Amino acid sequence: MKAHIHRTGAHWTITAELHDVSKTPALMVRIKAVRGETGDLIVPALYDDNYNALMPGEERTLHIELENADTRGGRPYIVLYGFNLSNGAHQQKWRAS
Fold first, then answer.
1. Distance CA 39, CA 71 (A)
2. What's the chain's average pLDDT?
3. Which residues, at least 6 apart from 49, have a Cβ–Cβ distance to it below 8 Å?
4. Which residues contact 59 (CB under 8 A, 6 or more apart)?
5. Of all helices (H) and strands (E), which one includes residue 71?
6. pTM (two decimals)
7. How confident is the model over 67-95, as a mean pLDDT?
8. CA-to-CA distance for 43 and 78, rounded, in angstroms?
9. Residue pair 78/93 in contact by the 8 Å Cβ criterion
10. Would you put residue 48 in left (φ > 0), alpha (ψ -120 to 50) or beta?
11. What is the pLDDT of residues 10-25, one digit of tens each?
């Protein structure tokens, strides 16, 4: 996954590019925006899609929109959950760049 973040005033936009590089489907793939310091879920957040299934080689781009006040002054992180993730984990965490 690649994550890109852009802040304009009091608004954050996060773009996450997902790619299943394995030979098995990645199932129930869920992306969440969390506070980097605590790992707490940032709410409210608007997602254009969630709970995805990606077939081998498939790519998908997801977008998240947040208000700065909801981050409580921290920079958002992205957490990816799912089954059959490429590294065998059920959870991965990225700091958006």
1. 11
2. 86
3. 60, 62
4. 17, 18, 19, 20
5. helix 68-71
6. 0.83
7. 77
8. 13
9. yes
10. alpha
11. 999 999 999 888 898 9
Residue span of the structural domain in which 84 resides: 2-95
CATH of the domain at 52: 2.60.40.10
Tokens of 54: 């990606």
Contact status, residue 74 vs residue 36, Cβ threshold 8 Å: yes
Burial label for 1, CB within 10 Å (0-12, 13-18, 19+), is middle
Query: DSSP character for 72?
Result: T
Q: 81 is written with which tokens? A: 């959950």
Residues 6 or more apart whose CB falls under 8 angstroms from that of 26 comprise 18, 20, 52, 53, 54, 82, 83, 84, 85, 86
Q: Closest Cα to residue 93, out of 83, 78, 81?
A: 78
Provide the domain count of the chain. 1
Return the pLDDT at 92.
Answer: 55
